[in-house]
Amino acid sequence: MKKYFLATTVILSMTASAKADVVVMSWGGDYGAGQVAAFNRPFTEETGIKSSMVDSDNPAALIKSMVEAKNVTVDVVEVEYPDAIRGCDEGLLEPIDPAILPAAADGTAAKDDFMAGSIIECGVATVVYSWVFAYDNKKFTEGPTTMAEFFDTVKFPGKRALRKQPKFALEMALMADGVAASDVYKVLNTPEGLDRAFAKLDSVKEDLVWYQANAEAARLLADGEVVMSSGSANRFFNAAVSEGKPFSTVWDGQIYDFAMFVIPKGAPHLDDAKKYLAFATDTKQLARMATELPFGPARKSSVPLVHFFKDGKTDIRPHMPTNPDNLRNALSVSSEFWGDHEAELTERFNTWLASN
Predict the structure, then answer these.
(1) Residue 20: pLDDT band by 50, 70, 90 thresholds?
(2) What is the pTM of this model?
(3) Where are the beta strands (DSSP E) in 137-191?
């Protein structure tokens, strides 16, 4: 999601705040355009309250600098899940009462309609994004269907791509080794579990290709440098649908997380910001967002409303992280685990990479 330069964002946000009642800061590009179509325009049409979208490559850092300077020029901001937790703990964000969020059409309260963990003290989830693996379906008559088969170089020979970081690689390794998704972090939080994860990675180390930038996952697969690759589900979808690449996604063992709307302390239009947040996270609007981009809506009641992608012909349902079939063996990222262990595990991971 991160795309634009910080300095540019400051200028844009100041300019926009003078022109609109609700200024929303998000990630820019196609993602920001999707939010304008799904949230901003319908919000203004329905309420008469003007809104605008500004871009940032690091919204959490901007919130912190604005709040500390007592010069907040944005009203609603989308951040990654760990940043919503951290910002709340640091007193940078307004608490959000779940009671302001609209119920589902059948009357189910929002707190029961959203996915578990997607409403927190200072944030409400918008979309679910996911880490999966995909393969070149021209290389295999019958491709892999499980996380274990990502690590099966006998049945599915060829190079595999992983992002050069312990996060996701360790979770994938444990699930491939037979650990249930619900137990991954419990196992990973033990010395024996860590050894088990690294041993599984070690079993395919010679067949692994490592990449740094998210965009490399699809490129490596498209260029034939690997036969399968882990990466963001939306990137594989875009490559397959928009570019016609022969990619098939495997959802078993998907690792998902939430993007969150938050309201900075000192937001210049607090009441309207809450109205915008409530509107944007309504069942219909989250469903609309899923037709704009292949992310899953965070509300359960939104899922049945999503059918076709914005091209009007691609059935988006099989490609959504929140499709019930895709959630059968899914893992929710533990921000708490990685907050506590990322530094030490990165050190161990780098040592393992450098070893023979």
Answers:
(1) low
(2) 0.86
(3) 160-163
